[in-house]
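Each field is set out underneath.
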Amino acid sequence: MDQRISLITLGVADLGRAMGFYSGLGWEGASPDGDVAFYQAGGMVFALWSRAKLQEDSAVADDPGLDFGAKLTAYAKLADDYFEVDRYREFCATSLASLPELVHSWIASTEFDDLLLETVRNTYPAHEHDSFAAHFRGLLSLWVNDNA
């Protein structure tokens, strides 16, 4: 087995200051979120990560009072917080609430059928146009009726 290291993470107190240090050495890195910075170093990645964020993750792993299920739950909460899941769900509920009706209306429209026929003509050989158009129209009709 060829053993190699592909990622090294270094915890830092001040990410901006640490990035400035490595920039002074000529290293080019990027921080997608202000908590971590990545540098390509040959065949591996070198990461600088906020010690505070590392401590959050490490606290879960190092907590002897948490069983495996509790650790998974804690990591899921960290991920939900990071990806702002509650904010996303609120956005979906408020801004996308009418999306199912809009999609249904679009799929049932003559404009969509025209697009379907154009796609079939541009995708399949001429002698198969009628059969594929009928096939896809049938599937879409079933979906429209099931979701009415």
